[in-house]
Specification:
CATH architecture: Orthogonal Bundle
Largest sheet: none
CATH class: Mainly Alpha
Strand content: under 5%
Shape: globular
Structural class: mainly alpha
Radius of gyration: 23 Å
CATH superfamily: MetI-like
CATH topology: MetI-like fold
Distance between the termini: 21 Å
Number of helices: 10
Helix content: over 70%
Order of helices and strands: HHHHHHHHHH
Number of strands: 0
């Protein structure tokens, strides 16, 4: 009963917070303290959002822009996971590999994804390679770090049992380290997805000819604040959906492990 009440209270407080935000926004827009050109009302943004789903803007509807963005995100995120997770596990198991890779990795992971934009523009122009590079640079570090931590904190008794049975390095990684590291890996993928999605939008603001970021740039150049804010709403909805999906996966894994 207490948990149910706490959850209801949380939902009520969340609704109150959202309601207060939109009420303040509506009041500020109606007060004319800020010109409507620069701060449209929530209703105006909602109407523009609906309009963008029906009428193409800079060549595509909002759904098509989102699909283009999601395709770039999927490619960059998948590449980061396919390289980062095995690398992190291997670094956690092989000390010599950790020593070789860590200095370069620790230096590069602090470079903001947006700093790769000039290289992306020079190397790939407005093609798909540029955004993928920037998404990869944002999504890659959490994949490596969490897989590494998962491998480092595997219970020693599991490792000792496998070594006693004469397991090879490959079997140790695939049958001991990987299963034991799954919760940490999934947590890293959740962080990675959030950073990758944020990096995508930054990339599309500069090195893309379609996508939600590109839509926002064109909305700004047309002095259409409602279009820009509609893009922001779309970004928030999709980002929340991605996080919710990975959070559900993380909770399911913990339930299976009895945590």
């Amino acid at each position: 009963m207490h948990d149910r009440l706490s959850r209801r209270s949380f939902i009520a407080l969340s609704a109150l917070g959202l309601g207060g935000f939109f009420a303040l926004w509506a009041l500020l827009a109606a007060s004319a303290l800020v010109p409507k050109l620069f701060l449209p009302s929530p209703v105006a943004v909602a109407e523009r959002f609906a309009e963008l789903t029906q009428q193409p803007f800079v060549g595509y509807t909002l759904q098509q822009h989102l699909l283009s963005s999601f395709g770039r995100f999927g490619a960059g995120f998948a590449l980061a996971a396919l390289i980062g997770v095995p690398l992190g596990l291997a670094m956690g198991w092989f000390r010599w590999l950790d020593g070789v890779v860590s200095p370069l990795f620790d230096a590069l992971r602090f470079v903001a994804p947006i700093a790769w934009v000039p290289f992306a523009a020079l190397w790939f122009g407005t093609g798909i390679g540029g955004p993928i590079l920037i998404i990869f640079s944002g999504a890659f570090p959490p994949c490596v770090i969490n897989a590494y931590r998962g491998a480092k904190y595997v219970e020693p008794r599991f490792v000792e049992a496998a070594q006693t049975l004469g397991a090879s390095h490959w079997r140790m990684i695939t049958e001991v380290l990987l299963p034991a590291s799954v919760p940490s890996i999934v947590a890293g993928l959740r962080i990675s997805a959030g950073l990758g999605w944020q990096s995508l939008v930054g990339a599309e603001l500069i090195v893309a000819s379609s996508g939600v970021g590109y839509l926002m740039v064109k909305g700004q150049s047309n002095i259409s604040t409602a279009t820009v804010m509609s893009g922001m709403v779309a970004i928030g909805i999709v980002g929340f959906a991605i996080d919710l999906l990975l959070r559900s996966l993380e909770a399911r894994i913990h339930r299976k492990r009895g945590r």
